Amino acid sequence: MPHSALPKRCVIADDVRRSRETIGKWLRECGFECRLAQNGRLAWEMIKEQPPELLVTDLEMPELCGLELLEKIRQADDESIRKLPVLVMTSLHDGQTLKIIQKLGGDGLLQKPLDKQATFSVIRDIVSARYSLQQTMHPGDEKCIKDRGVISPTLRRLLNKVAENEQ
């Protein structure tokens, strides 16, 4: 991934230290300056303080989950925050996640466990076409995206919230 085609700053939000550190390491190899947050609330504070060019956030986190963070970003007064490309990552394998992320204005979905080259590919797509929704998965995971699967309590609550907003 060429350094010149990449944004310079990124916030990575994940409550699992190993995940955020791994993604941070990968992105630093490509020239990103990464700030790491252990939850959505801290990520939101970092974004307000100095808007990055990319946010990579986990879906399920304490204090402010990834979808709530995405909503705050898309409703922000500051246009540079509102237009921030957001890549959501999750270990959930249900058919609703991508639809909800897309509905809330997310730019991409990564399925955990993450693959370095697949992550780079999605980031490259987001950088080149800022609001083009992409997804990536590991070989053999195709059916996990298509099937409904089990919906987590966090996702169920957010599905209900989105449905209420449509009425």
UniProtKB/TrEMBL annotation:
Record keywords: Phosphoprotein
Database matches in SUPFAM superfamilies: CheY-like
Record InterPro entries: Bact_response_regulator, CheY-like_superfamily, Sig_transdc_resp-reg_receiver
Cited CDD domains: REC (cd00156)
Record has Phosphoprotein as a keyword: yes
A family per Pfam: Response_reg
One BP annotation, GO: phosphorelay signal transduction system
Residue numbers carrying 4-aspartylphosphate: 58
Response regulatory domain span: 9-127
Keyword Phosphoprotein: yes
The protein's name in its UniProt record: Response regulator MprA
Species annotation: Rubripirellula reticaptiva
Gene: mprA_1
